[in-house]
Specification:
single chain; alpha+beta; 115 residues; WH-like_DNA-bd_sf; globular; Arc Repressor Mutant, subunit A; WH_DNA-bd_sf
């Protein structure tokens, strides 16, 4: 995807949703899951991902667990109770935004406008 600004604005929502679905993930796993789900159209860089993860952890949205896997240390991220509530809020905001964007871009087919 060419517009990185759209990704930046959605990164927290993407992370929260993935962690809600999988319970816990490590950073590289998150990047690969996004790449897989979007057939390579969206690529999240480590330079964008890790600052977002650290900020969300500092805000109390994520908890971490360090685990040794094949001589490598992995830091797994999971949602806290606050993180689950924030994910729900972010998803509601996103759905409302998409609905409004649809109304703006396609007003002729919106039954609510009674055109």
């Amino acid at each position: 995807m060419s517009n990185n600004n759209l990704i930046k604005g959605s990164l927290q929502t993407i992370i929260l949703k993935l962690l809600e679905e999988k319970d816990r993930m490590y950073g590289y796993e998150i990047t690969q899951k996004v790449k897989e789900l979007t057939a390579g159209e969206i690529k999240i860089t480590e330079g964008a991902l890790y600052p977002a993860l650290h900020k969300m952890e500092a805000e109390g949205l994520l908890t971490t667990e360090i685990q040794q896997v094949d001589n490598r240390v992995r830091k797994y991220y999971s949602l806290t109770k606050s993180g689950k509530a924030e994910m729900s809020s972010k998803m509601n905001e996103l759905h409302a935004f998409i609905d409004n964007l649809h109304r703006i871009l396609n007003p002729a087919i919106d039954p609510k406008l009674n055109l």
